[in-house]
């Protein structure tokens, strides 16, 4: 018996990094996982890793910046598996630039990838999370079980970070909307929480070479490590473990919070 047996989860950005580790962890806990990504090959690979370990997963390519694609993603989860219990809004990206050089396209791209994806995916899920719970409350006086929404903020939004005006705007908004959604959806037994990862080893934080789209300079990586109380950079599984807790019945009385997953990073908790 797993604590997520009979639960259906959708994870955005599940093809790589933290999203992939989250898909694998939710599946290990018993959930059926819809692995969403904009990129086909990594999503398919995550799903294959789950099925080869004996779990159930389905890759679905969609860019949830587009509302129609978000609806198609959620509709696929329903048509394939019949219900929806967990939405993990993990998709996100960075395009770092010092503020004086920022422009509208870079601002919009990062806001869209980190905030609009969560807005659209969560909105598309409402008929299956909120309306289903509402019908259960009408029939039985309470929802059958708690349903879970997890969003992804960042330690950058807790501390501020040079070069990340766009990213901290989006990730700060994630913290705020987590509180708002928790208040709106609590009466339906839907818990809404966020994780705020610190410095986690993925392509977003890999040592950046000249011309790379993602990554950060090696000296900043070393500085970040020096600020982490537990003395190491984080792994995607460190975040996945906390998300799995927030997706599980173990957190049924936790809502509206953003959990820093930082190894005790100075200034970011
Ligand atoms: N790595 C870190 O240190 C760190 C720290 C704080 C927050 N985060 C956040 O954690 C989340 C995962 O980051 P990661 O480090 O694993 O990055 P990653 O780049 O390794 O993985 C992100 C995945 O999301 C996908 N994606 C991007 N935009 C998408 C969209 N519009 N629709 C669907 N999929 C999309 C990408 O294709 C990629 O596979 C992001 O929200 C990121 O901002 C990461």
Quick overview of this protein structure:
The protein is of the alpha/beta class.
Number of strands: 7
Q: Largest beta sheet: what is the strand line-up? A: 3-2-1-4-5-6-7
Query: How large is the share of residues in beta strands?
Result: 5-15%
Question: Gyration radius, to the nearest Å?
Answer: 18 Å
Poorly predicted ranges = none
> Helix-strand pattern, N to C?
EHEHEHEHEHHEHHE
The tally of domains stands at 1
End-to-end distance: 34 Å
Query: Which structural class is indicated by helix and strand composition?
Result: alpha/beta
CATH topology: Rossmann fold
Quick tags:
single chain, 269 residues, alpha/beta, Rossmann fold, 7-stranded parallel sheet, 8 helices, 7 strands, 14% strand, binds nicotinamide-adenine-dinucleotide
Describe the structure.
With 269 residues, the chain is of the alpha/beta class. The protein has a single domain (8-261), classed as Rossmann fold, CATH 3.40.50.720. The chain is built from eight helices and seven strands. The protein has helices at residues 17-28, 40-52, 67-81, 104-140, 155-159, 165-185, 218-226, 236-246, and strands spanning 8-11, 32-37, 56-61, 86-89, 147-152, 190-197, 258-261. A seven-stranded parallel sheet has the order 3-2-1-4-5-6-7, sandwiched between helices. The longest helix is centred in the middle third of the chain and has 37 residues, at 104-140. The protein is globular. The mean pLDDT is 96.
Please specify the SSE layout and strand pairing.
Blueprint: E1 8-11, H1 17-28, E2 32-37, H2 40-52, E3 56-61, H3 67-81, E4 86-89, H4 104-140, E5 147-152, H5 155-159, H6 165-185, E6 190-197, H7 218-226, H8 236-246, E7 258-261
Parallel strand pairs: 1-2, 1-4, 2-3, 4-5, 5-6, 6-7
Helix pairs in contact: 1-2, 1-8, 3-4, 4-6
């Amino acid at each position: 018996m797993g604590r997520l047996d009979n639960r259906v989860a959708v994870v955005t950005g599940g093809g790589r990094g933290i999203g992939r580790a989250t898909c694998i962890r939710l599946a290990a806990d018993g959930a059926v996982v819809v692995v969403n990504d904009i990129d086909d090959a990594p999503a398919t690979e995550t799903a294959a890793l789950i099925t080869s370990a004996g779990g159930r997963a389905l890759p679905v390519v969609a860019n949830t910046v587009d509302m129609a694609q978000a609806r198609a993603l959620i509709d696929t989860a329903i048509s394939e598996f019949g219900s929806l219990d967990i939405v993990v809004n993990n998709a996100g990206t960075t395009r770092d630039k010092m503020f004086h050089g920022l422009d509208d396209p870079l601002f919009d791209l990062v806001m869209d990838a980190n905030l609009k994806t969560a807005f659209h995916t969560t909105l598309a899920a409402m008929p299956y999370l909120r309306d289903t719970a509402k019908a259960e409350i009408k029939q039985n006086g309470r929802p059958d079980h708690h349903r879970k929404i997890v969003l992804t903020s960042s330690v950058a939004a807790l501390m501020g970070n040079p070069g990340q005006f766009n990213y901290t705007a989006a990730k700060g908004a994630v913290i705020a909307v987590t509180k708002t959604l928790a208040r709106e959806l609590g009466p339906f037994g839907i818990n809404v929480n966020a994780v705020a990862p610190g410095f986690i080893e993925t392509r977003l934080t890999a040592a950046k070479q000249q011309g790379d789209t993602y990554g950060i300079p090696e000296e900043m990586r070393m500085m970040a490590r020096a600020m982490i109380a537990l003395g190491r950079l984080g792994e995607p599984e460190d975040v996945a473990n906390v998300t799995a807790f927030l997706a599980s019945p173990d957190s049924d009385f936790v809502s509206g919070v953003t959990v820093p997953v930082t190894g005790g990073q100075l200034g970011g908790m």
